[in-house]
Specification:
Two copies of one chain form a homodimer. Chain A has about 200 residues and is of the alpha/beta class. The first copy, chain A, is built from nine helices and six strands, in the order αααββαβαβααβαβα. In chain A, the strands form two sheets. In chain A, strands 4-3-5-6 form a four-stranded parallel sheet. In chain A, strands 1-2 form a two-stranded antiparallel ribbon. At the A-B interface, α1, α2, α3, β2 and α5 of A face α1, α2, α3, β2 and α5 of B. Chains A, B: This is Recombination protein RecR.
Chain lengths: ~200, ~200
């Protein structure tokens, strides 16, 4: 091996980052060492603080170092709307749409083969949150995968007796693509979900 | 913004890594927070140790926390061979070829437009190293770019009076590709550098 021990340890440690293999880790380590040591130290500090300080919001269960996350503590948001997502990254994605209601973050999706039932992903806590809240509509924004659909279906059934509106985000053709590139299942959803054009 | 301050700071800090943009940094931060906090802390520690502890080898000038790097301190390597490269990453690349001589690491290549002359990239130190050493051959393994070629040419001229063999790594077609995909300049080098097949 041609790297000294500290550099080798840094390269190994960088490989825990998603999408970073041996070659990328080498390039990252040497670039930090040669060009940006103070940036490397800042990164080390930010990592330590976040790993030790960040917990979960007690209300929506997204990642946050405060007991209540920015979305839950904002008094200007709509308390009649609840959006259910699979993870903290999805909160960020939905925020970009301009949605300004509340959130509930599951721990992933139902996956019986992996032993992940309703308790494991936090469905009881979701039920409790809805019982405590004043929601008129629950938007199920789990992923458009088989497991995400099954999870949405399960939650919809569970909420049926409560008399609130339970909705699912629309499936259809994404913007900016070409129709011939869209798979048949998506296109079938887009056809079934067609809407009259208001002129 | 939908992330709490510590998470936002971590995302910003991750963006100093080469090739990491906003989206990748978000994915890295959330993955570490959700799945591998101890790995994140190990990475923070490895970063701190490396940024504070790694210096340069006093002989070949590659990155190393010891005064002499593993290559310079290994007594079994060939003291008659010196390989000159542009940076520490290139040492690693050349090591993979099975080369077991010594190294000298420049700080990049000559680039008069950026104000990088011979002093800036360490040519005087290279001259000194060669004067002190017992080299019979100096292999110029700078990059096959215009600047790398110019740097190799400059060093070859400087070393001409010393009566050592000065060689340049071969240019030619890389293994595993197809001839029609190789650029004309490379193919011209491959033709000019053709060798009789020993049967």
């Amino acid at each position: 091996m041609s790297f000294s021990p500290l550099i080798r340890q840094l390269i190994d440690a960088l490989r825990i980052l998603p999408g970073v293999g041996q070659k990328t880790a080498q390039r990252m380590a040497l670039q930090l060492l040669e060009r940006d040591r103070s940036g490397g130290l800042r990164l080390a500090q930010a990592l330590t603080r976040a790993m030790e300080g960040v917990g979960y919001c007690r209300q929506c269960r997204t990642l946050s170092e405060d007991g209540l996350c920015p979305q839950c503590s904002d008094p200007r948001r709509d308390d009649a709307l609840l959006c259910v997502v699979e993870g903290p990254m999805d909160v960020f994605a939905v925020e970009q749409t301009g949605y300004r209601g509340r959130y509930f973050v599951l721990k992933g999706h139902l996956s019986p083969l992996d032993g992940l039932g309703p308790e494991a992903i936090g469905i009881p806590e979701l039920e409790e949150r809805i019982a405590r809240g004043t929601f008129a509509e629950v938007i199920l924004a789990t992923n458009p995968t088989v497991e995400g659909e099954a999870t949405a279906h399960y939650i919809a059934q569970m909420l049926a007796p409560r008399g609130l509106t339970v909705s699912r985000i629309a499936h259809g053709v994404p913007l900016g693509g070409e129709l011939e590139m869209v798979d048949g299942g998506t296109l079938a959803h887009a056809m079934a979900g067609r809407r009259p054009i208001g002129l």
